[in-house]
Design a protein that fits this description.
single chain, mainly alpha, two-stranded parallel ribbon, 2 strands, globular
């Protein structure tokens, strides 16, 4: 009974944190880029944004937060029991390992996401696992965590597995979660933040940004990565018509 009550408390606490994080970051980005100065160069894009799509994205994101909170509560309960590889003292592995482990998790998560994302687009699975995320053909920050419940569950399994397989400082884990959240919101802005001179260089070629991911929402069968483009380059799912130094979104 005590274990159930503890898990329930952890779930409620993490649900509040995850939901608050979503509304703070996604909502803040939407306010800043869409509402603060609506009469901007991006006005043509804003006319395509439908409030009903934003509502649907927010509803799916709330459901995703429910499942992510269960995963977080499970991890916290296992941490309390000393059954994870999470640690608290930087001296245990050194500062270099903290940075290395953070980067390693990002690379692993990107690969995990790429292969699952590509699988989710299979005609037999798309309707059940990924269609909800694509209800908005024009992504906004609210789309960033709009996952169908089965997809949200599958994504949460990655972080559950990581804390049992790789020694991670709590700071590294939090950094991964914040990077994932901010990167997802930025990639779903639907508006390019960086000048073409930057996009045509290393940054635009190997790191995923808003324009790169918007192409996925328009074409579906290209650009499956989360952070990096190298899986798309290696496996030829990079859109051949996409040029990082052009202004075209389609």
């Amino acid at each position: 009974m005590l274990i159930t009550e503890t898990l329930g408390f952890y779930w409620l606490a993490f649900f509040g944190i995850i939901l608050g994080r979503y509304f703070l970051i996604a909502g803040g980005a939407y306010w800043f880029f869409y509402l603060r100065k609506p009469a901007t160069n991006h006005k043509s894009h804003l006319t395509k944004v439908v409030w009903n799509s934003i509502r649907q994205d927010a509803e799916l994101s709330i459901l995703s937060a429910v499942l992510f909170a269960f995963a977080a509560a499970f991890i916290k309960s296992k941490l309390d029991a000393g059954e994870t590889l999470l640690y608290f003292s930087i001296e245990s592995y050194g500062g270099w390992y903290l940075v290395l482990s953070f980067l390693a998790v990002l690379i692993l998560q990107d690969g995990y996401f790429y292969w699952l994302h590509r699988l989710f687009h299979h005609p037999l699975l798309f309707k059940w696992l990924h269609q909800g995320h694509h209800r908005s053909s024009e992504p906004t920050p609210w789309t960033s965590f709009a996952f169908d419940p089965p997809e949200a569950l599958i994504h949460s399994l990655f972080l559950i597995a990581v804390v049992f397989l790789i020694p991670l400082h709590l700071i590294a884990l939090i950094a991964v979660l914040m990077t994932m959240t901010i990167w997802a919101v930025l990639n779903h802005l639907g508006l390019e933040l960086f000048p073409d001179s930057v996009l045509s260089q290393w940054f635009g070629k190997w790191l995923i940004g808003p324009k790169h991911h918007s192409r996925h929402h328009h074409k579906y069968r290209v650009h499956y990565g989360l952070y990096f483009t190298f899986w798309d380059w290696i496996l030829k799912t990079h859109d051949p018509s996409y040029k990082s130094n052009t202004n075209s979104q389609k």
